[in-house]
Design a protein that fits this description.
Length: about 170
Amino acid sequence: MNIAIFGGSFDPVHLGHIEVVQKALEMGIDKVIVVPNFLNPLKNKTSAPAELRYKWLKEVFNDFENVEISDFEINQKRPVYSIETINHFKPKYFIIGSDNLKTLDKWKNIDEILNKVELIVAKRDEIDKNLAKKYNIKKIIDVEVPISSTEIRNGRFKYLPHNLEKEIKKFYKK
């Protein structure tokens, strides 16, 4: 079975994340496991608590076949390194945003990660061709939704899942 992990903060989830999952399934991946983190090891805080981000993801992907929302990392109550999640689920693929290409050299056990999974890069803009070559990126998901979670947290309330739009706006307007 071709399984892909799609991890991240999802702070908040938006239509771009949904598009990544849909396109991953369209490229022949049998199952996508969406894994919200408790706290990104390269960051020191999140805006929304982990349990709320998990709840939002469950609601957004409720009707999707072949998509699982996992609380594996959240249950650790600490930053979890990608290699731990990969060792737990043993996926064939690991989906990252193109912004992560620049920091892969800081990831714990990146060489082991690259030996165990094939990275799929989801991109909004152009990706650095040298980094794509360095990390042997063969699969790319073009994301048409021009938004990031950072922009939403900063008050640009666009491209939100319809069923969560009011709740997400209310949370980030605090």
